[in-house]
Amino acid sequence: MARAKKNVRKSGRRHPLATVALVAVGLLVTGAAYAGFSQTSATAEVDLSSQSAIDEGQKLFGANCATCHGTEAQGTDDGPSLIGAGAASVHFQVGTGRMPLAFQGPQGMVKPQQFTEEQTLQLAAYVASLAPGPALPETQYLQGDGDVANGATLFRINCAMCHNVAAAGGALTEGKFAPKLTGVAPTHVYEAMVTGPQNMPVFSDANITPQEKADIISYLKYIDEKPAVGGITLGAIGPVAEGLFIWIIGLGIIVALTVWVTAKSN
């Protein structure tokens, strides 16, 4: 009887690894929550006009950017001057991972960010302190709740010739290309319009008003979220892809079927 009770007590004990697993899960959840909170707080708390943010940005600039852009951001043979580039340009280039460059090429490539959002804003604060330039966009224009129809019209007139009407991107000359705009953060879309990165022209508020920029962002959000009611999009790059699909796949199936029927009849 005593032995039976002892066995019952043993069967009720937790596995030695259960505590370790519980602690590990707790650390992961806490770490993820802290990282998300830190990211949000950094975005909200960095004052681009504060001297502390500018000083921290200058330190980051000297350690990571001065080799190409010069110690005073005056530019060198390897990188353009950033005087007057503005906070929006820095936030776009660094925030999308284009800067620092991975290698010299026709244009900067999108890659994972090498700086936190706080550090990116500090770099933007430093460059913005050197001379007036395009500022970070106001939150009210980034919500994606504008006029989608007007945004579609503006996009077709101003952007589709390079980025494709479905924002799928397209090839340019000399190895350059217009990137796809699906999945791009509204902040970066707005910043690209006001700064004209790489091959893109600048769309000032005189060309496209802030509200019209918000409408374009709303159209891009609509493209991101709408279902592909026509079936396979084939990359959404237009009739060339669709025609190629018909000629290679469609005619290939017809030829194969013809050969099979002929072989059977013999």
Total discrete domains: 2
Biggest pleated-sheet summary = 2 strands, antiparallel
Helix content: 55-70%
β-sheet strand percentage: under 5%
Q: Class of the largest domain in CATH?
A: Mainly Alpha
Pick out the low-confidence regions.
32-44
Secondary structure class reads mainly alpha
Predict the CATH topology of the largest domain. Cytochrome Bc1 Complex, Chain D, domain 2
CATH architecture of the largest domain: Orthogonal Bundle
Order of helices and strands: HHHHHHHHEEHHH
Mind sketching the topology for me?
Elements: H1 2-11, H2 16-45, H3 51-64, H4 66-69, H5 86-95, H6 117-130, H7 148-158, H8 160-163, E1 170-171, E2 177-178, H9 186-195, H10 210-225, H11 239-265
Antiparallel strand pairs: 1-2
Polypeptide structure, described:
α5 runs antiparallel to α6, α7 (148-158) crosses α10 (210-225) and α9 (186-195) crosses α10. This protein has helices at residues 2-11, 16-45, 51-64, 66-69, 86-95, 117-130, 148-158, 160-163, 186-195, 210-225, 239-265, and strands at 170-171, 177-178. The chain has a two-stranded antiparallel ribbon. It is mainly α and 266 residues long. Helices cover 56% and strands 2% of the residues. The chain has two domains: 21-133, Cytochrome c-like domain (Cytochrome Bc1 Complex, Chain D, domain 2, Orthogonal Bundle), CATH 1.10.760; 137-248, Orthogonal Bundle (Cytochrome Bc1 Complex, Chain D, domain 2), CATH 1.10.760. The longest helix has 30 residues, at 16-45. β1 (170-171) and β2 (177-178) form a beta hairpin.
